[in-house]
Amino acid sequence: MDVTCEFYVKVKASEEGVSTAAQTLGDKTFDADALREMVEGKLVDVLRAVAAQMTMDQLHENRSDFSQQVQQAAAETLLKNGLELESAALTGLDQTPFDMLDEANAFNAVGMKKLAEVIADSKRQRAQIEAETDTAVAETRLAAEKRKLELSKQEEQVRIQTSIEVETLKANEAAEVASGREEGQQRSEEPRITREQATRTAEIE
Q: What is the pTM of this model?
């Protein structure tokens, strides 16, 4: 992990702080570069110690907790030299590029192995999610197609049923018309038949 922090440090404004700084820092108080190098070394050790207790995900998810732990540990470390931590700010947190890591370093080797496992696991999870998404989309599409076919089937059944009912209605109407025509014809023939029967009866008599 690449962790970037900004620290603001000063000599503790007390007789004890000034005395401790003078005793522990010695000539470094007159050499800004040497003093900066020493303080930076202590703060880097603090960052590493706190970061080592957390996973990469925990660092990302709990940046404020990480920052507080760093400030607390740094304050305790600096106090030994009569220094006081005014403020600390976590300004950067990212993965260290593989090509910048020394594989011969045992700590780097462990970190690279863990990182490779995390990346591989992430790829597997992403592939699984993509596969599940594709499956869900295909199932949705299939369900929609089945529904479409079912609706088409129902529409065809309704059309056929309607056609049968229409044809039946037409046949019934035609039968009623034919029956009515036959009855009308019979009624119109009745007078003639009656006359013919009367004529035959008269001839016989």
A: 0.46
